[in-house]
Amino acid sequence: MILLLIVAFVAGVVTAVSPCVLPVLPIVLAAGAGGDRRRPYLVIAGLIASFSFFTLASVQIIDALHIPSSLLRDVAIAIVAVFGLTLLLPALSAAYERATARIPALGARMAHPGLAGGLVTGVGLGLVWTPCAGPILGAVTSLAVTAPGSAATVALVVAYALGAGLPLLAIALGGRTALARLKLRSASPWAGRALGALVLVTAGLMAVGADTAISADLTSALPDWTGTLQTLERTQQVQSALNDLGVGSRGGSTSAGGASTDASGLPDLGSAPEFAGIDNWLNSKPLTMAGLRGKVVLVDFWTYSCVNCIRTLPYVESWYQKYAAEGLVVVGVHSPEFAFEHDTGNVAAAITRFGITYPVAQDNEFATWNAYTNEYWPADYLIDATGQLRNAHYGEGDYVQTENDIRALLAAAGAAPSALPVAATSAPTPPITQSQTLETYLGTSRAQQFASPESATAGPKPYTFPGSLPKDGFAVRGTFDFQPEYALASAAGDQIELSFFARDVYLVLAADSPVPATVSVTGAPSGGGTEDVAADGSLAVGSARLYHLVHLSAAARATVTITFSGAGVRAYAFTFGS
């Protein structure tokens, strides 16, 4: 337990100096800029107390009061906005301080102007702040739902909140000192008004959900400051300690668990974890498992450049369309594999491209992924109307069985089986064969079967094709810069060559501006093009996504060569179908 407390505290510290803290920085700086010198301490104390309390109890509060899951956040945003108004319009400041001083248990102890208001502002700040979540926070959130009153849960939440609060206190005090040295805090009334306007703008962004999108964009654009911590959090010692607390113990079996608790015949696998650390919600307002009680829920983990996920999405969407009126809620949890999949705009474009209409949660830091101890794309988790996890399925296939399980849970929740839409009785077998070439990554962190004479090391270097390309191997010719996630084609005429056994070949590609390319196949007839490649082999590489390069009449051993007519194309990974 001591190890988990230390890691939770460090995780909080790292969170407070990561890009996801930027949306709340204006409020922290403004709260500490003026008033009593003790106010920054009260603001951060309010944040720590609020974040800890509502992490532990928000689900239970929402469930008990039957209020919308977004109401607490809306109230907190209103508090932040009122605080901004007091800075922008000093005439309101005295009224705000009088009002907050009357709050029971605050007024008697904090009669000095500004202190009670600072504490209230901190409470609001703790409610609106959405920290970048890693395995520890994901585990803590899961524990808060399943064991909210346990001493271990409380200790971990408080340790994390203290770790996050101390750097924010340093920032508030540092900003206060800097303003004092510049003689702006008291000598320039416009400085307070400027801070007030900034706080109001921040509150407005929070009201429309833009703060989470901005945080996601900044996290993607700036260096990965939390990568080392993420590695620490996933060590065997930490994961073992989490398992001892009951987190991370769910495996991938669809049959594990206790006996069925209703007529569905499905096993009871325990309480479904709460959504944790979601960066942004698309197609929906924020959802909670507690708020979805009474509904049957399908949680689908996916990422938009994964061909296995792409092939599954039409089935998931069809279930949503057929059964939403009967009580089914589908939540797609988008957990990214590559850096570009953190981008909210890219995810939104993929949602439109694939015709997804159900809610999608951006799980950029894998908090919900870790809460479910998930390991696969795609993965589907079925939750009954009482919030219990009833089944899990990993990978493609078994679509008829999954639909039958959905129907069984809907019937157990009270839907009349005869009134349900007609179920599918068959589905195509996933296009995967035993001898099919395995997913092939081009970046240095996971590259295998690289066959060019010179090893794939970082930095632009000239490469040539080998005399003979090994089966399932790939090679490059031209000037390439190999990075951990991708190989960058650095000049016109650069080529990538792959030996494969499959019917269909896909490649994740990206270019900041459109780059023409040509795709050719040797050793088998090409099949006449794809939705991305014209019959003459021409391809336009642009947005970061999965491109369908080859479609043969049948699975065969062949070689595909991609020739780029310009520089700047990033190639990530080949995937296949048969």
Protein model, in words:
By secondary structure, the protein is an alpha+beta fold. It folds into 3 domains: 2-227, no CATH class; 250-419, Glutaredoxin, CATH 3.40.30; 440-577, Sandwich (Jelly Rolls). It has helices at residues 2-16, 25-33, 39-65, 71-88, 90-101, 115-128, 135-146, 151-181, 189-207, 210-221, 227-233, 236-244, 307-323, 344-354, 367-371, 399-412; strands at 280-282, 296-302, 328-334, 360-362, 379-383, 389-394, 440-441, 461-463, 474-482, 487-489, 495-511, 515-522, 538-541, 545-564, 569-577. The strands form 2 sheets. Strands 7, 8, 9, 10, 11, 12, 13, 14 and 15 form a 9-stranded antiparallel sheet that branches. It has a 6-stranded mixed sheet with strand order 1-4-3-2-5-6. Strand 2 (296-302), helix 13 and strand 3 form a beta-alpha-beta unit. Helix 1 (2-16) packs parallel to helix 8, helix 2 runs antiparallel to helix 9 (189-207) and helix 7 (135-146) crosses helix 8. It is globular, with a radius of gyration of 27 Å. Residues 105-113, 224-228 and 248-256 have low confidence and may be disordered.
Q: Which helices and strands occur, and which strands form pairs?
A:
Blueprint: H1 2-16, H2 25-33, H3 39-65, H4 71-88, H5 90-101, H6 115-128, H7 135-146, H8 151-181, H9 189-207, H10 210-221, H11 227-233, H12 236-244, E1 280-282, E2 296-302, H13 307-323, E3 328-334, H14 344-354, E4 360-362, H15 367-371, E5 379-383, E6 389-394, H16 399-412, E7 440-441, E8 461-463, E9 474-482, E10 487-489, E11 495-511, E12 515-522, E13 538-541, E14 545-564, E15 569-577
Helix pairs in contact: 1-8, 2-3, 2-8, 2-9, 3-6, 3-8, 4-5, 4-6, 4-9, 5-6, 7-8
